[in-house]
Amino acid sequence: MLARAARRLKARVPWASAAAALGASASCALADGGDDDDDDVLEVVNWSATHSARPTAVYTPESVADVEALVAAHAARKARLRPCGSALSPNGLALSAVLSDGGAMVNLGLLDDVVAVDAEARTVTVRCGAKVDQVLDALAPHGLTLENLASIASQQIGGFVGVGAHGTGASLPPVDEHVLELTVVTPGGGTVTLARGDGLLESFLVGLGALGVAVEAKLRCVPKHLLRERVQVMTRNEVAAKHADLLRDNRHVRFMWIPFEDAVVVVSNNPTFDGVLGEGQGGPSPYTDDQKLAPLRALLEATRPGVPGAASMHFAELRDALLAIAPLDVGHVRAVNKAEAEFWRRSQGTDVADSSRKLNFECGGQQWVNECCFPAGSLSQPSGADVRYMLDLLDLIEREEIPAPAPIEQRWTSGSRSLLSPASSKAPLPDDAIFSWVGVIMYLPTDEPTQRAAITAAFDGYKKHCERSLWPAYGAVEHWAKIEEPADADAAATAVARLAAKFDTAKFAALRDVYDPDNILSTPLLDAVLPRGG
């Protein structure tokens, strides 16, 4: 994924010169664009091509010793060094500005060993450059897997636990709670290994790369298992009536709300060790793949006849092709959403597959996305805030005629003890506390700059509606991988106040003073929303 994220990677100086200047190990190489003739350009771009940075170097260390030497060298020079993983964060958490002050990046893609699997204790120890799918592959021969996954498995473990990835399941915590030990190389405190019960691990998890470079993690695992997935389409009223039972009765559940349509896709997954589909839950959809896709293909043919390759496009490609025709025309977006709703009605049914396949799912093409998280009571006493939020959001979209494509995805987790987890709380939480995560989206189905700029502006307005009309009433904060750098001082002040009300930001600032006293790991985004004064 880094290869895809790195649009042009060309070292400005030979590695030998950089190594000599920094005093770092020669095995800690610069990322190089190979035969690219566009020298003097080093640009790292996130997956959606919405954020980029031009550091002076991208280092790819091959050992913990390399990382220690690199961090120490930058600390001695007070030179910026930003950790960057697979560049999957929609906000480009590591890429919020051009690092023109001598700043560099470090990517642990070559530090990807699975160090140990303890099948009896059900734990795995990995280097933080390992990707989630690599870890799953390493666990499989031992009959183990990870308890919960985010929507994709291309994240490096460092980013997976560092930004608050969460998966779904109202009785399951975000993935930072799976970490039992974490080793971090810090500019101010050297290399530290943290464990549950030491009082510090929870402050370093969801640490946003602001306290150090995470190099090794020990995670708890669960027995490898199948999941029985059921896809249903319900009305909004049906979901409102049944949602508490859906959260209690299913190990994993997510909703996909479709703006302008009275349709909510409910996807539930539950462990099954015998592969049986489940009594009373039906079998697979009776429709073929072509029949499921027919509404989208028919709309594409009606609005833009003769699109090359349309007959072989899969679901997400068809949606992108349709939205590219008129991505900001409300009437057209409504028509696309209507076709998508019919696709899901034809996709209703039950299926069984390995948990790693069912918990990962299609996220679509390049996109702007914003996700917030807010408390929704507990499993024993749900507040109903999760459904009220969605109904308020849909009312806002339809009243303001926002060209909002489907889906608006809603997921749930239990609480987290991590200091900066959006699923944490300053006040004590009940053991069965639940948090809802809601993501809004606008796709970028074109490379045409003017159209992308228009979509970007429209999405900014969409997000501002949510920020002003919904977040304060529900106590919502943004997912760290989706928060954007504030546009001006007023926006920054609002973000700082919102985060300070949710988190003990003063405590995090004090930790940064100890472990990164010269602020070499930060970015303008982090400086704006988490100022060192707390």
UniProtKB/TrEMBL annotation:
Domain FAD-binding PCMH-type: 51-224
Leader sequence residues: 1-31
Keywords: Oxidoreductase, Signal
Pfam (any one): ALO
Matches recorded under InterPro entries: ALO_C (IPR007173), FAD-bd_PCMH (IPR016166), FAD-bd_PCMH-like_sf (IPR036318), FAD-bd_PCMH_sub1 (IPR016167), FAD-bd_PCMH_sub2 (IPR016169), FAD_lactone_oxidase-like (IPR010031), Oxid_FAD_bind_N (IPR006094)
Domain of life: Eukaryota
SUPFAM superfamilies: FAD-binding/transporter-associated domain-like
Protein name: D-arabinono-1,4-lactone oxidase
Organism name: Aureococcus anophagefferens
Organism phylogeny: Eukaryota, Sar, Stramenopiles, Ochrophyta, Pelagophyceae
